[in-house]
């Protein structure tokens, strides 16, 4: 999403990373978070209930969860924060490193984000500056966003107030997120920024199709990001790949409802960096407004290149725009349509894309007349319009490349 850059201008507040040392006299009972969690230098478990959290869905458990983090971040070895079964209501959780050990968050229960926007300076759960992170379990991160979606004005103006994202990884290396669910965020479900070697696997992401700006997974200025065997249904992009991202592997993802698997928006802000080496394979898109999409602003403010993308073995089920490159992206008419694009799009391969389109235009390559798309390959594209009275078609403007094994109507070149 174009709005994401505002998220990265937030102040980065450092949180104390070391637990308080408690005196231990022989025979005396230790007190404080370290004692409640089990303490120890070789690895510890920190249970938010033992630290005062209550899983009744009503009691504010922010203090208990933050204490669990403080103790875990101070410990060496494997440090596990346990959220047991139950519903734990919290305000903002700022988990800041660097930490001494490897952090594991075992989410067996559910965390509920407070609906009081006055509590939030930025995001709900923000994890920063870690070298090893694992979040796993069968629990949920429930943003309870329906209560505040009416406060979102970003469709109308650039300088809108960004509502809290559910889970943000900033400057995190070597991360695994698996098994958990994210539901009904106030803004994005997950936002990955300046991070490396992150795997998101077997995750479920759910929000209504009409919920505003509820992107499933957004990433920017990051590298080596894998999203595997994940189910995403949202009111915006299922996955959005922002500027400065490279080495993305998306496999086994089911998307719908939502706006598809998108690269961009590109070019909205100055000094954006290139996007390269993106692979999307073995995915299914169901009744989404787009399938696989690359979008850049027509009045782009940055000079950048999007290149080396491969989309392969993708099934479309009544998708409105199954294959689309849109270099004239201008949402809600809040940009200038002057045609002065500075974004170069090249070396893009679409291979074995099958299924149905809910509109006649199964392929749309809408490139700039000043910077045409080059090196576009269409191989075995067999997506057919599912309606009546119109024929399947491709709309190709200022695109250069080759087509083989495609439906005759979709050859483009």
From TrEMBL:
It is found in: Secreted, Cell wall. Its EC number is 3.2.1.67. Residues 47-61 have a biased composition (Basic and acidic residues). GO terms for biological process: carbohydrate metabolic process; cell wall organization. Residues 25-61 are annotated as: Disordered. The keyword Metal-binding does not apply. Keywords: Cell wall, Cell wall biogenesis/degradation, Glycosidase, Hydrolase, Secreted, Signal. Gene3D superfamilies: Single-stranded right-handed beta-helix, Pectin lyase-like. It catalyses: [(1->4)-alpha-D-galacturonosyl](n) + H2O = alpha-D-galacturonate + [(1->4)-alpha-D-galacturonosyl](n-1). The active site is at residue 259. InterPro entries: Glyco_hydro_28, PbH1, Pectin_lyas_fold, Pectin_lyase_fold/virulence. Residues 1-19 form the signal peptide. GO terms for molecular function: galacturan 1,4-alpha-galacturonidase activity; polygalacturonase activity. The keyword Metal-binding does not apply. It holds the Pfam family Glyco_hydro_28. Belongs to the glycosyl hydrolase 28 family. May function in depolymerizing pectin during pollen development, germination, and tube growth. Acts as an exo-polygalacturonase. This is Exopolygalacturonase. It comes from Oryza nivara (Indian wild rice). The lineage of its organism: Eukaryota, Viridiplantae, Streptophyta, Embryophyta, Tracheophyta.
